[in-house]
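seq:
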Amino acid sequence: MGTTQLESVPEPKYWHLKTVLSEALDHDFAVGEILPNERELAARFGVARATLRQALEQLELEGRLQRRRGVGTTVAPPRVGVAVGSARHSWPGESADGWEAVDAAEALPTAAVLKLLAAGSGSAASGSAVFAADQPVHTVRRTRVTEGQVVAAELLHVPAASVPGLSAIDAPAGPARARAVLRELQRLALDGQDRSVELGSARADDAKELDRLPGAPVLLVTTRYFTAGGTAAVSVATYRADTCRLTFGDEGVEITETRVAS
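struct:
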């Protein structure tokens, strides 16, 4: 990576530096490689460290770089797609869905969960189930891991009525319990699903799991799964906004997710 003087560039220095750095990332650095420290980079390009930081921040927002605690600034790997608007419908936990079961808990639903489950069932379902506050709900916690790093966290809410065959004795807790809930859910005939995507802020528990600060921008993907009786389950997945982007293609909306270097 050679020295580039930016004094005569009419556009903002940091923006031009971002372009130069982006080209260097394509040709001079390998995925996961750690960049030189700020002092060395600033000297090499003949800019103030404040200008360099602005350029690095832009590249981080674009998913080209990742800053990791205790490691430094590394080159981000290519992105992989996670379909959101695909015509293919499948239950969570089916083969190759990219998620890992972490835990499962049974409790009475909160008002927020009740609202999600009771939301309109859409055209995919023939009816809309009525959920009572005194009926328990299984909440399965899962994570999406890429290159050993968590890039998304999910809470899947499954009313006990949707999985009547679930045994309270077998796999009482942990990942095994979560997988048991998923297996029972897959016994149902899936009539369809719908999804919505919105920008949100990371809650404290999600932020910790995603290695972000509370309040960091995230993408919230809410999915409702329908059976003949109405809504059988609702998933709320939280994706790191700095590792995902929305693209539009022939099959609908797709979330494209950065592979995180280990």
